[in-house]
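Working notes for the structural subgroup meeting. M.R. asked for a predicted model of this chain before we commit to crystallization trials. I am recording the input and output together here so anyone reviewing the notebook later can reproduce the run.

Input as submitted:
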Amino acid sequence: MRGPVALLLLMAAETAAAQSYPVRPVRLVVGFPAGGPSDVPARLIAEKIRVPLGQPVIVENKTGAAGMIAASDVLSQPADGHTLLLCSYIDPLNTLLYNKVSYRLEDLAPVSLVSKAYYAFTISNEVPAANLSEFVSYAKARPGTLNYGRVGAGSVTEVLAKQFEKLAGISMTGVTFKGTGPALQEIVAGRVHFIVGPLSVTMPLYQGKKVKILGMTSPERLTVAPEVPTLAEQGLPIVSYGWWGVCARSGMPPPVVELLNRHIVAAVASPEYRNAMEKSGVIPASSTPAELGQEISKTVRETSQLFRELDIGKID
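Returned structure, recorded in token form:
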């Protein structure tokens, strides 16, 4: 009888925790700079869930080490739901890329997706190319001369650029930046030629005619820029997206997970959130905790294969 009794006591404790949660402000930790594709949805979600939670939800940007500083911060706190992580496809990618990672994916508890976004193959206005074919010809005539912006080794900005090089038969030089924002500013200035840019930060520059977009990694044209063809339309078989969600430390009481999931799903469904995301070409997307877990597993599976194909090994 000790087993069933202990289980009942545990369930009662978890229910009590959910009923009293939260008892203080909630932190939502973001591993990348303010204003970027991770930060924007985090701030919108935080604003939306603070009212039903009855506590402030404070967004904290803890940048560095490809988001691992933020993940480590969250995992160092109690698993009580008062410290959350704006997780993304980058978190599973880190476990594949680095030999020394301070966490395992099992340490993270998925709560819900908040968005998905495709990427834009973006070039400087200084590059005399109007479409993908012209850019490939221009690059082939200048092997190793053109450069592309990347946000760290093994990032999507590097992996998709390398995949592009391999499929198109071109060679470019990678230049590392701390974020896509600074890299895009160099694109605008004409000192960097190419970048795989997240739409949330690329579209405002494109709409302001400060950069050119050669194609989208979406399976079909996007309503935010219907004039821009997909890469697949132009004979380049690259379809890729990034995802963002809310995670917590593993071990958080299931009733707290369910409570947070319910509020986040409602926030993503709100007109304010959807309008803000869709204006920049980002797709609002919520999920169950299990569905976010499946997305994490899918990222590991597909990225592992891509790393093998591009001969990207682990780094210290």
